[in-house]
Design brief:
Length: 459
Amino acid sequence: MTAHLDLVLLLVLLLALMAGYPVGLTLGGISVLFAGMGWMLGTFDFALFFALPSRLFGIMSNSVLLSVPMFVFMGLILERSRLAENMLDAAAHLFSRFRGGLTISVTLVGALLAASTGIVGASVVTLGLLALPSLIRNGVSPPLAGGTVAAAGTLGQIIPPSIVLIVLADQMSNAWQQMQVRSGEFSPNTISIAELFAGAVVPGLLIVAFFVFYQMAVAGKPEEEVGRVSQPTKSLSELMIAFLPPLLLIVAVLGSILAGVATASEAASVGAVGALLLSRNRLGEGRFKAVLQESTHLISMIFLIIIGASIFSLVFRGLGGEETVSHLLNQLPGGTYGALIVVMLIIFALGFFLDFLEITFVVVPLVAPVLLAMPMADGSAMNPVWLAVLIALNLQTSFLTPPFGLSLFYLRSVAGDLVSTLQLYRGVLPFISLQLCALVVVLLWPDIATILPQWLYGD
């Protein structure tokens, strides 16, 4: 037991999280208990806790994490406005004459919401309230309608600006620096949030394309769908009013980050102000107060998890967990790719029971430094942007995988009797398969994730 106290800590922590205990408190509390056990057994040096204040200060002053509050606020403001409703209405008219046009319009609006808000829960609830009744009313089968809405909402996981990508950028940058220091490089490079955003753009569009082709393949005849759409044709000015504001916001936020004009926190602030301006006539005092309250709740939860994860990381390393993980991964058959595939399978399996924040802050800090230190087939180091995008694609499936996929819970809370739980589970299975196909494609062709960052920022 003494020799493997690190693994026992990991097992107990995962079981506690699966049981539904609060994530931040569980991470910190159980870690402190095991630190005490390790100290009594002589396997943990309690002096390591003297490093905790500097770690917490580093979290609060982290330039990447400083963007989280503004992105959360921006996303919730847009979710409370009627931008999504206007875009759905316009997209339904644009694509109603195409095969699968109604479901395609939901997917494309989901992609625009993802690039505007970056919050999966807000996108799923918004699309569930606005699009699901319309899809069912216009003859789309309940499984396909439910699966379309849930999957479109998860695009906020991989399409920038995504909260997942922001926290992954922080974790991957730490892992990349650790790997460089261990290899003798004492002026390590970092991974910027702009690089990870750029790396996720093409894979995100690839998933959108997969969804659209699937919806076209399973849809009814175009003329049947045309007969169901009875609303009058919209003018060009009406379409521009629906799509132009969110597109301008996307260019202002994402474009400024990718172009290097603004940092993530600066761009997030611009986005928050832009969202307020776009929604100024659509938010009453009550709605604005609700946005502030929910923003405070979400931001506090995220940072509590980050603090708890920092305590867990410190204790796990103090118990020798880093060496254990390194030994286990290096002993796997298949070398670097074998270890990478096993890690991807573990993350996918954990996605059935844990949410993305729990996996990001528990699993990624353990495996990322080890994987980045393992050589690729040509002897080069693993690209950290590629690894981060693979993990993000994998984490995206956690929102859809039964029984605890968050998108399923979000959609069930607003679906009522339109879609049963079993129909929803059946409906998301094809979309989970498509997301895994995209993961395999990026795994086999890393350039899909690395070509845009290399073009924008060089090697």
